[in-house]
Design goal:
The protein has two domains: 8-127 and 300-319, Aminotransferase class 4, branched-chain amino acid transferase, N-terminal domain (D-amino Acid Aminotransferase, Chain A, domain 1); 134-277, D-amino Acid Aminotransferase, Chain A, domain 2 (Alpha-Beta Barrel), CATH 3.20.10.10. 28% of the residues lie in helices and 26% in strands. The protein has nine helices and 17 strands.
Length: 332
């Protein structure tokens, strides 16, 4: 799905026009994949536009950057304000937010520490990641021939741009075989995750999911679903999952910020359970959408975009004022 441009992107402390958000072709990130990012959704809840688990996403970003011997130039609190303003300034009621940190133009060798750390935050409208019918009817997936990266080759826990070269191969292979998504196994042959999603399995009323040691990304939506399951009295087990369990499971589903909570209908052409989304999957889906659609938030997971911020953003657009941040950032 082509991106639908919005007026502004935030880059290194100021807002620039979408079409002017550029980097140099000799930036380190272009040659060596040295970037770290987050995917965050804002929802049009009944209580107004709200960003889901913004703090948790930004904390994960901070940790991802740290794993590669770099430091985030802005605090989580500063980037929280930036994300809210990006949504407001672009007049978005519902969107996908992409903070990205990358090594920029400076030096050009594999050794990265002489390159500056750059930061940008963009947002755009983005619909259902795996298709409009996926939430209701589920998707067909296949086990990939591409293994998930091993944790002793590069940190799989980091949401790093370079890691997604592996994910691209998984997704391309799945599409060529007619599947909506692929499932990777780790280097020990155990279930890891999808190209951009964590995975859950239900068997005999127990909810299973691979552990962090299975080379997975510690998903924010994954942790959300585990919280809901425990509240519902559903046993949650983080354990190695052999491939055979995918074919024997009563229910399977993906979780992720882009994908949300998506039932898996078949694996390698074999129906999961009855071939339709199961009751535990439906229950956990319902719990998730009650938070992000209805705005029911006893957990403090929603960051609301103030109405006055949206009004001020629209006013700035009408007046065609100079494009600069209204947030007071320290100099860099």
């Amino acid at each position: 799905m082509p991106l639908k441009p919005v007026p502004y992107i935030w880059m290194n402390g100021r807002f620039v026009r979408w079409e002017h958000a550029r980097i140099h072709v000799l930036s380190h990130v272009v040659h060596y994949g040295s970037s770290w990012f987050e995917g965050i959704r804002a929802y049009a809840t009944r209580r107004g536009t709200a960003i889901f688990r913004l703090y948790d996403h930004l904390r994960r970003l901070e940790r991802s950057v740290r794993m590669y011997h770099a430091e985030l130039p802005y605090s989580v609190e500063e980037l929280t304000r930036v994300c809210v303003e990006v949504v407001a300034r672009n007049g978005l009621r519902e969107c996908y937010i992409r903070p990205i940190v990358y090594r920029g133009y400076g030096d050009l060798g594999v050794y990265p520490l002489n390159c500056p750390i750059e930061v940008a935050v963009a947002a755009w409208e983005w619909g259902a990641y795996l298709g409009a019918d996926a939430v209701r009817h589920g998707v067909d997936v296949g086990v990939s021939s591409w293994q998930r990266i091993a944790s002793n080759t590069m940190p799989a826990m980091a949401k790093a741009g370079g890691n997604y070269m592996n994910s691209q191969l998984v997704r391309i292979e799945a599409a060529r075989h007619g599947y909506a998504e692929g499932i990777s196994l780790d280097v020990f042959g155990m279930v890891s995750e999808g190209s951009g999603e964590n995975i859950f399995l239900v068997m005999d009323g127990v909810l299973y999911t691979p552990p962090l040691s299975a080379s997975i990304l510690p998903g924010v939506t994954r942790q959300t679903i585990m919280t809901f399951a425990r509240e519902e009295g559903i046993p949650v087990v983080e354990a190695d999952i052999p491939r055979g369990m995918l074919y024997a499971a009563d229910e399977l589903f993906f979780t992720g910020t882009a994908a949300e909570v998506i039932p898996i209908r078949t694996v390698d052409g074999i129906p999961v359970g009855s071939g339709t989304p199961g009751p535990i999957t439906r229950l956990l889906q319902e719990r998730f959408f009650r938070v992000v659609r209805e705005g029911e938030d006893p957990y403090g997971w929603l960051t609301f975009v103030p109405v006055d911020a949206s009004d001020a953003a629209r006013s700035r657009k009408k007046k065609k004022v100079t494009v600069e941040s209204s947030t007071n950032f320290r100099s860099r």
